[in-house]
Write a structure and sequence with these properties.
CATH class of the largest domain: Alpha Beta
CATH superfamily of the largest domain: TPP-binding domain
Mean pLDDT: 95
Bound molecules: 2'-O-acetyl adenosine-5-diphosphoribose
CATH architecture of the largest domain: 3-Layer(aba) Sandwich
Largest sheet: 6 strands, parallel
Structural class: alpha/beta
Low-confidence stretches: none
Strand content: 15-25%
Order of helices and strands: EHHHHHHEHEEEEHEEEH
Helix content: 25-40%
Shape: globular
Number of domains: 2
Number of helices: 9
Distance between the termini: 10 Å
Strand order of the largest sheet: 3-2-1-7-8-9
Amino acid sequence: MKKLVILTGAGISAESGISTFRDTGGLWEQYAIEDVATLNAWIKDKALVTDFYNQRRKQLLQVEPNYGHRGLVELEKQFQVSIITQNVDNLHERAGSSSILHLHGELTKVRSEKYENLVYELTPDKYEVKIGDLCEKGYQLRPHIVWFGEAVPMMEQAIQITEQADILVIIGTSLNVYPAAGLLYYIRTEAPVYLIDPNDVSVSRGNVHLIKKGASEGVKELIKLLQIQS
Ligand code: OAD
């Protein structure tokens, strides 16, 4: 089976009702990154940061995967599919994809602010974290999110997966954030690249097949195109 690697960003979850970051009305228009998504923000105001992520978790409980997510599961009949997502939601998991790597962490997990290997899964009935919720060694629990300025621990693994791709598909990411956007440099030159996005995205690589549509329609078209070509 050919290896299909899919890099997703906030745009794939937009039709589920989760706003993207950099589009008009996006999350970074409503909040300043430096207030909620950096280690400094955490040090300065843990309650504010905790509340911000509690709100994101609450929203996640109210939304469902869309065809953008579900269509990628159908592709598993034909390809060995690996999803590398920048998203911290769990919509790929809930759609049923079997191989998902979260580059920027996961909303449904928290970890010790001191011992990064002490990671805990939250449940839908207890998704809210409070100041005073501690790890087993007595340190505050923080979001299991890669904040701006922090290392991206899953990057090595993501590079290895990308290097082996026979086909790369990019869905719903502005490719503004590094190192994630740098994954494009690791794709073999002969591997075709498909990009699904309703808006223009600048890609540092030639020979990209653009599907200028939202995720649901775009994934439908991708499935047709890949069936014809395989
Ligand atoms: P952005 O908000 O930067 O980009 C979203 C992309 O989705 C844009 O290219 C939009 O055109 C596209 N888009 C909008 N609606 C869409 C739809 N219906 N279908 C498909 N695409 C659509 O989000 P990301 O590139 O994911 O990191 O942002 C990368 C990282 O920056 C995030 O993981 C997050 C953020 O700050 C952290 O929080 C650490």
